[in-house]
Write a structure and sequence with these properties.
Two copies of one chain form a homodimer. By secondary structure, chain A is an alpha+beta fold. The first copy, chain A, contains 13 helices and 17 strands. In chain A, strand 9 and strand 10 form a beta hairpin. In chain A, helix 3 packs antiparallel against helix 4.
C-alpha cells in the first residue's frame, strides 16, 4: 500500500478533529502527544516532550510531513528538523511570526497591512506615552505565549502593568512587550484560509466571532450583513498574510471591524482554529481536511458553504463534573439537527471541551437551536 | 469522565466509518477485529475470533453495547452474551433473520410484506416445478452466507444447480435452498432507516442503487422521480420490517421497483450499508452516527438531506497495485467538490476499497462529477 502520513505535534482537540478527515481520506495520521489520554489519544503514536529535538526527530521519521496542534514548538527544534530535510508545514520561518507577536506586527507593517497602531515597549515611560497618544487606554500583550485572553491586559497607565515592566517581569517575557491601540470595533471577524507549499490559496467565507471573557463563544458563518467590499478585503488580507509570512496549511486571521468599515488585523493562528469549527458541517471541505491536504501539498478542496448559514457555539466547562455526555439524550431529543462535538477532556470550569454546530437556511433559527442545545449540554447537574 | 462505549464486532470499512462520528460525539468506539491491520485498525482494541464466545465475552466487558460490522457472528455466541445481560444491538432474535434468508422470507410472509414469490427447496423436482411456474427462470440462493452476488445464481433448470442440490452440496448450505421469482424490475431501490431499543424509528429519503456484476456501483439520493406514494410505501415497509423483526440500529431494505410501481423486498442488512454511504455528507445525520446513537438508545438525529441531491460511486479495486492514493492529486485538482473516501485496504481487483460522494443542487452534475473522479482514481498505473 502507498501511504500519505501526516504527523501532528500536540494532542489537543485540533489534532483530534483532524482524525475524522484523515480516516475518510485514508491518510495515516500520527500524533506526538504531551501525555497519555489526550484529546487526540486515538491517533497518538508517541508520547513525549516536543521541546526535545531528539523526541521530535524520532517522531518525524515516521511521517511525510510535520504539522501542529499548537504553536509552541521551539523554533530551534523545527529548524533542526528542516536542516535534516524534514517537511515542516507551516515552516519555522512562518511560525516565527505566530510565536512572537512583535515579529508578527513588524512583518505586517512591512507588508502595509491594516492593523491597530502598535509599539514595542521596554519601559513605563514609552508605555505611558503610547497610552496618552491613544486616548488613555491601550492593550498590552506579552509577545510570546498568550492565547484565549492570557498574556493580554487592558491598561490605562503603566502602573497597571508594573509587574510585567519590572526587571524580573520583562526578563520573563523576553525583554519587551507589545502595546496596541484599543480599537473601538463594532465586531470581530475571522478570515479562514489555506495555502499549500505549491502556492495554491483558498479562503472560506468571512465569519463573525463573538468573544466572552476573552474566549470565543460563538461563530456566525458567513458574517451577517458583510458587504461585498468587506468580504473581498478580508480575503485579500488573508492571502497577503499567508503569502507574505510564508504560511502553509490553515491560517486564521482574526480582525476587528470598525464603525467606518475598516478591517484591522488582531491575531493570527497558523493552524485550524476555533473560528473554523463551523466548517466541519458548514463547508464542502472542513478546515481539518483542508489542513491535511495543504500540508501534504495536495490540491485544496472546495470551500463553498453546504448551506446558507452555519452557527457554532462553544461548550465551555461549567464545573469539574459535567462533561456533557449525561445531557446527550435531552439535547439530542430536543435538537435533532444540532451536531454535537466533544473533545474527550476532563471537566473543568471555563475549559474548551466541545462545541455544537447548526447548519441551516435560516440564520436566526440556527443560532437559537445552537444556543439552546449548548444550554442543555452545559447545565449543571 | 463519564463514557459512552460502543463495541463493534468486525474490523471492516463499516466499523472504520463509525470512527469519525464516534470521535465527534466523544463516544468511545472499540473494535474486535479479525486480524491486525484491518480497515478499522485505529479503533481496534482486541484482535480475535468472533466465533469464540470467550473472545467476544471478554470484548463485551469493555463496552456498554455490542454491535456489528457484519452479520456473521454465530447466534449461539450472541445468545450467550445476552443471557449474561450484555446489550447486543441488533439483538440475536433480529439477526437470526439477517443470517438466514429462508427465515427472513418466512417472517416477511407472516407480516404480509411485499416480496418476490419464493419457496424452500430440498430437491431438484421442487426447484424445477418452481422454475416452470415462474416463466422458466428463477433466482436460487444459499440461505446463509451470501453477499455481493456470492451464494446467488440465476437458474433455468435444476441442472444449473446440480452441485448445490447434491447430497454433499445441500449439507454444505444447511439442508435447504431458497428460490425466488426473478423479478422483472425497472430499477433497484434501498430504504435506509434506524430504530433504537426504545422504539424511536426514523427513515432517510429513499435511494436508487445501481448494481454491476452483483455489486453496488452507484447510489442516487433521493431516488430520481420517485412518486410520493412510492416514497411513503418504502418508509412504511422499512418500519414494518424494523418493528416486525425487532431490528435496532441501522436497517437497509433493498427493494425492486416493478413497471407497475410495486416495491418488492429483495435483501435486508441490519447494519450501516453501502446504499447509505451518501449520508456521510448528504444527510444531517449520517448512517454511521445514527447507528451509534441507536445502539446506545440515544435519540435519533435528523435524516433531512443537506442538499437536494447526493450521488455516491463506489471505488472498486482494479488490480493489486492501485489503492487510489497515487491519483489523489489529479482527482482533487479536477474535482474540488468531490469527497473521497478510502478504506485503508490492500489493492485487489473488484474489492470495495472506497467511494466518492458529491452533494449538489444539480443531480446530473453530481453524477458526472462523482463518475469522473472515480474514473481518475481507478485508472490503472
Amino acid at each position: 500500500m502507498s501511504e500519505l502520513r501526516v504527523g501532528v505535534i500536540g494532542g489537543g482537540q485540533l489534532a483530534r478533529m483532524m482524525t475524522p478527515p484523515a480516516i475518510n481520506l485514508g491518510i495515516t495520521l500520527k500524533v506526538l502527544a504531551e501525555a497519555e489520554g489526550s484529546s487526540a489519544a486515538l491517533a497518538t503514536t508517541l508520547v513525549g516532550d516536543y521541546n526535545q529535538v531528539e523526541v521530535v526527530a524520532e517522531f518525524a521519521k515516521t511521517v511525510d510531513v510535520i504539522t501542529f496542534d499548537h504553536e509552541h514548538v521551539p523554533l530551534a527544534v523545527l529548524e533542526a528538523l528542516e536542516a535534516n530535510g524534514v517537511s515542516v508545514q507551516p515552516p519555522s520561518r512562518a511560525l516565527a511570526f505566530a510565536q512572537n507577536k512583535l515579529r508578527m506586527r513588524e512583518r505586517l507593517s512591512q507588508l502595509n497591512l491594516p492593523m491597530p497602531d502598535w509599539a514595542e515597549i521596554h519601559d513605563a515611560d514609552s508605555l505611558d506615552s503610547f497610552i496618552e497618544a491613544h486616548g488613555g487606554v491601550a492593550i498590552l500583550k506579552t509577545p510570546i505565549g498568550g492565547y484565549d485572553g492570557k498574556g493580554v491586559r487592558v491598561v490605562s497607565s503603566s502602573a497597571d502593568a508594573a509587574d510585567w515592566l519590572s526587571a524580573e517581569g520583562l526578563t520573563k517575557v523576553g525583554g519587551h512587550l507589545l502595546v496596541e491601540e484599543k480599537v473601538a470595533f463594532v465586531r470581530e471577524l475571522a478570515q479562514l484560509s489555506a495555502r499549500n507549499p505549491s502556492g495554491e490559496f483558498l479562503a472560506w467565507p468571512l465569519v463573525q466571532t463573538v468573544q466572552a471573557n476573552g474566549v470565543c463563544s460563538e461563530v456566525l458563518a458567513p458574517a451577517p450583513n458583510a458587504s461585498e467590499g468587506t468580504l473581498e478585503q478580508a480575503a485579500v488580507i488573508a492571502q497577503a498574510v499567508s503569502e507574505g509570512l510564508g504560511v502553509t496549511g490553515v491560517l486564521a486571521v482574526e480582525m476587528f471591524e470598525t464603525a467606518d468599515g475598516r478591517l484591522l488585523i488582531n491575531e493570527l493562528a497558523m493552524r485550524p482554529h476555533n473560528s473554523g469549527h463551523f466548517s466541519i458541517e458548514g463547508s464542502v471541505t472542513s478546515q481539518f481536511e483542508q489542513h491535511l491536504r495543504a500540508v501534504l501539498d495536495l490540491p485544496l478542496g472546495s470551500t463553498l458553504p453546504t448551506n446558507a448559514h452555519a452557527v457554532m457555539v462553544n461548550l465551555l466547562g461549567v464545573d469539574d463534573q459535567n462533561d456533557f455526555l449525561p445531557h446527550y439524550a435531552q439535547a439530542q431529543s430536543a435538537h435533532p439537527e444540532v451536531k454535537i462535538h466533544t473533545y474527550g477532556k476532563g471537566a473543568r470550569a471555563g475549559r474548551k471541551m466541545g462545541h455544537v454546530t447548526v447548519v441551516s437556511g435560516n440564520a436566526e433559527w440556527a443560532l437559537e437551536e445552537a444556543r439552546q442545545a449548548a444550554k442543555v449540554l452545559t447545565q449543571q447537574a
